[in-house]
Amino acid sequence: MRRTPSFLPQPPESWAGPGRVQLRTLVLLRWLAVAGQTAALVYVRYGLGFEVPMAACLGVIAISAWVNIFLMVARPSQGVVADWEAAAQLAYDVLQLAVLLALTGGVANPFLMLFIAPVAVSAIVLRPTVTVALAVLTYICVGVIALWHLPLPWRPGESYAPPAVYQFGLAAAVLIGLGFTSVYAWRVAAEEERLSAALSEVQTVLAREQKLSALGGLAAAAAHELGTPLATIHLVAKEMERTLGRDPAHKDTPLMEDVQLLVSQSERCRAILKQLSSRKEQGDAVHARLTLETLLDELCDRHRGLGAQINVHVEDAGPDGARAPDIARSPEIIHGLGNIVENAVGFAVATVDVVARWTGTEIEIVVRDDGPGFPQSVLARLGEPYVSERAPGDGGGGLGLGFFIAKTLLERTGARIEARNRTLPKTGAVVRVTWPRAAIEAGPLLAGAHDS
After folding, report:
1. Model confidence pLDDT, tens digit, residues 244-266
2. Domain 289-440 classified CATH 3.30.565.10?
């Protein structure tokens, strides 16, 4: 919970991974390139009237079309492709574009910027090693077409060649844009992947908490379903007891004792089930609300005896004589605050203070420990997935998901979470969770609910 790997996931060096891109995506992108390249050639040749080596250029484009047709026939399932296969296809797209640009002016061709597209796609869906190799290939292609290329298409009988310095600037702009776009796309994709994994963990935790909260309802339902067969068992046992009681030879036998035991135990089971059934709604209403003090005790009891002393205090900040509000029981609140308390206990030197305050409009719970506190470099990013709450040397071996899960769950209930360090000379971390009172306060308890 408190330890994280590096800020970006460490990619394996192998290219033989299962991959994350579907073949249909690569085929669709290539069809778009084929359509765009063909439209550009037709417009330049017949719209602008420029001289273009149409046969050679259309031949290069036709090869891409045939590659797509081959892939669609050979792989009708269009499933996910391995990293090496996706890298090979993107490398082909780079080479095809390089040949097309070499036939139409080299680096002087404004479509030079299209070199960024294959590398950006690789940065999003493939491993960093693949992207680096593809970027190197692109750099080489830009250098080659800068040295060898046909003239830029222009009007018949005329020629146009931008100054060498300008062409060098275009090539440099593409290379810089390639690097920037690739790193940006890689970073965004990595963050999205980490966030998706962390949110999946949150959903798993929440589902587990909701199952625990539903046990009361399941118990009531089980009591209702078991009532009929238990009544039949009790009726048969009573009939057996009456039959044996009429025969003096069976009154003091072990068989009679067993039947009487069966009757008494079935009556006991019927009483328990009757109690559960009668408390189905009233019991749920009582279970669904907690006083602030009960909430804090429930959170802290599971962490007592683990090294740090936990002090719980509920301050009366309301009007004189007013009773502290009850809280609606929520799996998000229980697990979210539980994570924060667990984290404080794990880093505390001796004591953890858990304080609840309330006013007419807000409810606030503050968790303080006397540990080393949050590093300043972590405070600004605290709450992001896979970011450790404390310094690496403070112990713990989690993945940095604890505070993220707690923050996500609590914010779903309308909470506002603030984290800071205690003011010197005191040390330690302070986490303050504040709700609008209306967001979590339990509604009025129905009359008679306490009687159950």
Report:
1. 777 776 667 788 888 888 888 88
2. yes
